[in-house]
Amino acid sequence: MKAYHLNGHSGAGRLVRVDLGKPEPANGEVRIRVEAASLNYRDLLILDRAGQGGLNGRVPLCDGAGVVDAVGSDVVQWQVGDRVAASYFRDWISGPFKASYIASALGSNTQDGMLAEYAVLPATALVSVPAHLSPVEAATLPCAGVTAFHGLIARGGMNKGDTLLVQGTGGVALFGLQFAAALGARTIVISSSDEKLARAKALGGSTLINYRDTPDWDVALMKATNGGGASHILELGGPGTYDRSLRSVASGGKIVQIGVLTGFGPKPDLARLQWENADIIGVTVGSVEHFVAMNRFLTEHAIRPIIDRVYRFDDAPEAYTHLRTGSHFGKIVVGF
Ligand SMILES: NC(=O)c1ccc[n+]([C@@H]2O[C@H](COP(=O)([O-])OP(=O)(O)OC[C@H]3O[C@@H](n4cnc5c(N)ncnc54)[C@H](OP(=O)(O)O)[C@@H]3O)[C@@H](O)[C@H]2O)c1
């Protein structure tokens, strides 16, 4: 089968095309013929570290969707032909997170990912794809979609009447925006680009702030909400945005701590959290249970992921280059 491996031998991480044997499912496992795989910001971080800690020689990308192609002898819940996507953590099926699940993240230093024609995974690590979605659309769900759903809805309880702040117009941000719009919540979008803000408006964004023109976007947000602030915040930036997020949170609000777009290890002044009786919700993607619940929500509200661009399998390295520019709006996908 055709696949890509991470290669860090030359110092700078890169992708190399490889031909591998078609994997066979053992008992309890399912083989998927992958139809599409999508990219997330974390895949750039992983590519850049491809020479370190077991990444070299791994199949990259956590996100993929396709069709069940073969099943192990004791698999009862899936049949050949079923449309499925892989959950981000192979081992986090339901219930609270455990640190031991980290090593089961797909496309990591311990697990192969989805940028290969076939993938074999435990039957328990798969979910059915919503019927209204194409394979390309379904491939965008496992990381960005589940992260936004877990943080904002499963843990954050976002609903009609709430006000959401999303930072930028990448994958997680636009899922958050679409979920809020479906619930009838208000969304404030900050972005580097007026053109992207216009597109966000068409998706339901109601207050639009260009953070390049308005670096004090927290002040603009407070003005736009008459001092009330945002009840829910998708904190995607990290050190460069965290203090402004804290100054944007409503009384009793929730900051969903997710991102590292400006780096790792924010050291925010947490005084305002206490002052506002607000909460921080820390999120690492989500479980199979979260994924199934999100798919019900997507179906109920007929939500389709926003696709920026689809690359051919042979052009997967260009998809990474495009992601790195930050010029995308929504998800970048590799179609097989
Ligand atoms: N904790 C978790 O489980 C988890 C899961 C998924 C993602 N993440 C993290 O969440 C972040 C977003 O991931 P993604 O895959 O959605 O990224 P993405 O699709 O690559 O989104 C990048 C976009 O973020 C915006 N951005 C960049 N710097 C910004 C800043 N300083 N302020 C506001 N917006 C900024 C830009 O949009 P504009 O051009 O519109 O400004 C950029 O295009 C990443 O840090 C990723 O590692 C964490």
What this model shows, in words?
- The protein has about 325 residues and is an alpha/beta fold.
- The chain folds into 2 domains: about 1-140 and about 305-335, Medium-chain alcohol dehydrogenases, catalytic domain (Quinone Oxidoreductase, Chain A, domain 1), CATH 3.90.180; about 145-280, Rossmann fold (3-Layer(aba) Sandwich).
- Helix content is about 25%, strand content about 25%.
- Strands 3, 4, 5, 6, 7, 14 and 15 form a 7-stranded mixed sheet that branches. Strands 10-9-8-11-12-13 form a 6-stranded parallel sheet, sandwiched between helices.
- Strand 1 (about 1-5) and strand 2 form a beta hairpin.
- The chain is globular, with a radius of gyration of 20 Å.
- The structure holds NADP nicotinamide-adenine-dinucleotide phosphate.
Give me a quick take on this structure.
The protein has 336 residues and is α/β, with parallel strands linked by helices. The chain is built from ten helices and 15 strands.
CATH fold annotation of the largest domain: Quinone Oxidoreductase, Chain A, domain 1
Tell me the number of helical segments per DSSP (H or I, 4 or more residues long). 10
Strand portion, in percent?
Answer: 25-35%
CATH architecture of the largest domain: Alpha-Beta Complex
The value of Rg in angstroms is 20 Å
Q: What structural class do you assign from the helix and strand content?
A: alpha/beta
Tally the structural domains. Answer: 2
Main β-sheet, in a few words?
7 strands, mixed
Count the E strands: 15
Shape descriptor: globular
Compute the average pLDDT. 97
CATH class division of the largest domain:
Alpha Beta
Distance between the termini: 12 Å
Low-confidence stretches: none
